[in-house]
Amino acid sequence: MNRYIFAGQDIIVPAAGPSFDDASGAWAAAAEAATGSREYEAGCGRCVAVMLDEGGAEAAMLGALSEVEGLRRIPLRQALSEYPAEAIKGALRGAALLRWLETARYCGACGAPLADKDAGSEDYGARSCAACGRAYFPRISPAVIVLIRKGPRALLAHNARFKSGFFGLIAGFVEAGETLEEAAAREALEEAGIVIENLRYAKSQPWPFPDSLMVAFTADWASGEARPDGVEIGELRWCLPSELPEIPPRGSVARYLLDEFAKEG
Ligand SMILES: [Zn+2]
Predict the structure, then answer these.
(1) Is the domain of 72 the same as that of 108?
(2) pTM score, two decimals?
(3) Would you state the pLDDT for residue 160?
(4) Are 155 and 240 members of one domain?
């Protein structure tokens, strides 16, 4: 069993992290203080994730968990860059489920409280409304991210809202009724004024901030002069692999696409 402890946007990890592998007294005490918990199956096996509120996290760090060797509380995004994808997989699923549970408390149609579906039922994992029968599944919001090529160069974008100086890639949420391909083309045009072609799937990644699924592509520039939209994108650069600016930390698909691109340099 993999055991994960979250506190807001953070994950609490032992030295060997990210999961507490044994059902120690420290884990049991921390789990007891949880405001939410979920058991689930992930690629790495059976998991349980618990959420502590700020007071609970502070008490657990000073109390039961203080005995655990090398204990740290770190942002989940940082954990993504520290642990291999396989090791953090169960935590990503746990974070997504716990965040969903925080908002899946009442039926959106009739307002009655929702309850978990029984184990063994067809919709197990969903929450259902006893009053009107509707079932609610964990929400997943797909987003596309595209590395756009123009000969040996790739288009890097500095998000106007980023406080730090790093450059990422053209990205955005898929809109209702839209295909992934259409979303990628629209974002390239809206954010950078560029028409793309030869869209090629690269990989995907769950991104529980709070509930995204990032679908990553590469594409070729077809036409258009790169110009930032000035709202989301503050600056655009066509970069050679050897001249990449500061890029997102490891653990994100943006970084994966850029690392693959940098290997060409
Ligand atoms: Zn209802």
Answers:
(1) no
(2) 0.89
(3) 87
(4) yes
Instruction: Decide if 16 contacts 60 (C-beta within 8 A).
Output: no
State how far the Cα of 210 lies from the Cα of 110, in Å rounded to an integer.
25
In angstroms, what is the span from residue 139 Cα to ligand 1's centroid? 17
C-alpha of residue 137 to centroid of ligand 1, in Å: 14
**How far is ligand 1, taken at its centre, from the CA of residue 113, in Å?**
8
Ligand 1 midpoint to CA 125 (Å) = 17
Ligand 1 centroid distance, CA of 106 (Å): 8
> 53: CA distance to ligand 1 center in Å?
28
The answer to whether residues 108 and 132 belong to one domain is yes
Scan for tokens 């050897």, then name that residue.
242
Write out the E strands in 45-140. 45-52, 72-75, 114-116, 127-129, 135-136
Percent of residues, the chain, with pLDDT higher than 70: 100
Measure 35 CA to ligand 1 centroid, in angstroms: 24
What CA–CA distance (Å, rounded) separates 182 from 187?
A: 9
* pLDDT value at 124 more than 90: no
Residue 111 sits in the same domain as residue 87: no
